[in-house]
Amino acid sequence: MDFETMFKGQLSQLKEEGNYRIFAELERKCGQFPKAKCHDAETPDEVTVWCSNDYLGMGQNPKVREAMKNAIDMAGCGAGGTRNISGTNHEHLLLEKELSDLHGKESALLFTSGYVSNWAALGTIGSRIPNAVILSDELNHASMIEGIRHSRAKKMIWKHNDPEDLDRKLSSLPSECPKIVAFESVYSMDGDICPMKEIVEVAEKYGAMTYLDEVHAVGLYGKRGGGVSEQEGLADRITLIEGTLGKAYGVMGGYVTGSAALCDFIRSFASGFIFTTAIPPAVAAGARTSIAHLKVSEIERQKQRRQVAKLRAGLDAAGIPHQDNPSHIIPVMIKNPVKCRQIADILMQDYGVYVQPINYPTVPKGTERLRFTPSPLHTDADIEHLISALKVLWKQCAISQAVA
After folding, report:
1. H or E, element range at 176
2. Is the pTM of this model over 0.85?
């Protein structure tokens, strides 16, 4: 079989559909976020990043950087192996303690990414609880979908953010059937926030376990950054809270928190934990410093909310439609993959504005968008420049027709 021809053929089809992804070659400038050096030809040397998940700029925070450098000097670079074989370091345990405290849980368990933590935790729970049924919100992240698929447990999909549909699905199951309700707090593409209290109450009505993904909320919501579950006073009623260290906390890694038995259960049976090299001690030290800082500092969150509000108001004043939601994520809908790519290219090349087009399969076809995430480090001038650039593009006939 001619594998090379097959590979090239499928890539060509992807390009024709407008869904081929092109990565900008950027170099983050230490301490200058959201500015970055761009190495691509025909673009400005410096661009402003508008689509980073480093939501609070903590990846550039001096305290976090210092903690990581000190940890390297003390412990070296790598972890030395899997957690089971020489890879468990003191910094890992300190970070897990910080995380369990963040969510008010007995225990926590680290993973190499939020994707892996969802895949491993849901896959393990679903496969090892006999006859379990996992009820998954229809817009759950790919990592949750893959975890459920990996578990081979029975799956039921309930309508997005619809507690009434969840109730109907749960009521159709036998009372003795183990039930797991899996959902997110902030959905990253539309920026909507789940009706958490109603979902938890429905789950409790049927004795279901609740599995909450807070990756786009930790650090950002709640008095100490514990997410929407902390903000709503519901963390103690949720069985498992999963999060990431790679977004608002500015480093990398994922985790789950819950009872001591639950975390030990996942630690003991999850292949995605057992056979994966642990995150470096320096990364754990940086994450712990970031979490501890955001537990007591409101400055970053307040500044971010102010800039989010300014960008929304500026878009409204300019007549540029964006999805209304209560979160920090601002999707500007384009609804055409080719136009989405074109707009992103023009913004980059002519205005030094970097925003990555969000196309299929990240979002359904026909819902392509530009996803803006203002940070506390975006200045008022940055916002004004972005709005000015979008206003020019919006007046161009071809683009306005594409987003009508």
Report:
1. none
2. yes
